[in-house]
Specification:
about 400 residues; mainly alpha; two-stranded antiparallel ribbon
Length: about 400
Amino acid sequence: MVNLRSLFFWGWMLIISAGAFAQAPAPAPAPQAPTAGAIKTDLIRQMQKDGYLSEPVAREVTGKYVSAGDFRQAVSAPGQAQASAPSLWAKYMSWVNLIKVVAVICFLLVFYDTLLKMRKALWIHVSKVPTIVYQLVFLSLTICGTLRPQAIWPAQAFYLVLFCAFANLILVAWMMTTYKVIRETLNKLPLYRRAPHSADSLLGMIYFGALALSYQSAIFGFFAAVCLSGVFSFSMMYTPGTLSLEFKERLLKAMVFGHLVVLTAYCVMRTTGMQWESARYFEAGIEYYCTIALSVALLVGASPWPFKAQRSHYMSLFIALAIVASMMYVFLDLKVIASILLCFFFLVTLEWICYLGFRTNMLVGAGVLGALLYGIAVLIEKYGALIVLAPA
């Protein structure tokens, strides 16, 4: 009984003292900030005192640069406003807030079983709703966020569009995996039946391309270029520590000539200026991603390992593109495309030299490989900035 009385007494004293602890101490009165006129006048007076200004010049400068309004404009120190405001710790760490937290914990302990029953009852009702209802509701919201972001969040409209654009794809994929009838209907189409990955990439290219043009976004333009390479079965995937490049070897010809047509059209548009403002949104994706896809396809096609019947054709095409890339690097502002093509051409050349060297003799191959690697290291150390950047 005594312990209960003591606990009640100290609890009551804690509540009484909460008011005093909750309030932060009154801040000391801040010193009055000097006005702009006082600062200018003191500066002119000090310059006159040090001999930099004569008395007539000082009066002239004062009349020209010091106005009556300067004496009504106070100049505060940079951190004065922040210093006078209470800190976040002082605002929330108080006895009153501590008592509120304890009270909420007590209420949760008292109504714990009731909350569990409410959660179970709510989940029963939620689980009875068909999945298609949630999917359509979420899809309607994300489509609305994609088409009318200004009406939802004007300050962060683009980020809302970016989130909703990918949420649309996730929801559509969810619906396709949930209902097999959608996939069966799509498989009846000739393009989906022959190459479903290419068909999905084609739709993705149209989707992201429309978003890139609508919102003038290079981010959507990059993903449109990624989907464009996916039409020719090329894909790039990164996992921690590993970058994997994948494509179907039976589509090697389509991959080479498809990307070659795209890059040729892009270079023509870039150099002639035709519709360049619209093509600028796809610049990063085409110059980097599509060029890497073309270079990888040529590297695989012209490589001496394994043997391919048409590797001489791919090697001839790669040599011609390397010559064109050298001219593009020197005479045109297409250094990114030219640098990537030349780097991959150097790799396939290195492959052939090593192949022929090791085929002749093991020591000859090792010596040639060592000399080439050492030369590459010296060139990169001295002229590495010229790979992409223009010479100074």
